[in-house]
Request: fold
Amino acid sequence: MNLDFKEFKRFEKQIILKKIGFSGQKKIKKAKILIVGLGGLGCPLVSYLAASGIGNICIVDHDKVELGNLNRQILFNNGDLNKYKVLQAKKKVAQIYKNIKIKTLKSKVNSRNIKSIFKDFEIICDGTDNYETRYLINDFCKQNKKILVSAAISRFDGHLFKFNFKKKGPCYRCFMPEQPIEENNCETDGIFSPVAGIMGSIQANEVLKTILNLKNDLSSNMLIFNSLRMSLRKVKISIDKDCINKCKN
Ligand SMILES: [Zn+2]
Reply:
């Protein structure tokens, strides 16, 4: 796979970074990324991945754009209301960079379809807004040795996890074995708009670093951001010996 002159000009500011170079940009072009959820996290995430030159992106979401989404789902505007998020996002991504192959799926990931949706992807991004899907994606990625970059936002806070299940280590259930009784999500708790942008951007940061094999990554750690205190903490997740995904083996 080669880069032509136009591609060189477009990505010049990345290519001149020693840690990327031509070889790194080719890796980015060759990459295939799956994004589940096109909400407050998915919008900045897909925008940065597209702008960086990721060659193949698949987006999965079953929702239509609603007025209450527009404070944080920055790919969308009034003209997108009541239309499917994945279809509108595909048009916007084509405007960012038309050479990206973008596949859209108007579905909700469930235990029946997860295998066929995930099978062609090594790196999975979870930006969904409910625990049920979060656990399903975590368990599937663990069992099938995928790399999972997962983010969650609520009120003024954001969490980010990266699990490289090709290696031994903890999973999301090691951190939170059971779904909390009260479902906390942006529907019930509210969300401070820039937190979505910050966490979706950090998610893109981790995806690109994974593609580029850059060291000092977040594996087995979680990143906790609080926008009121302006604190960013990295916390180690220990393997739970009783984890149902048998993370200790
Ligand atoms: Zn586990």
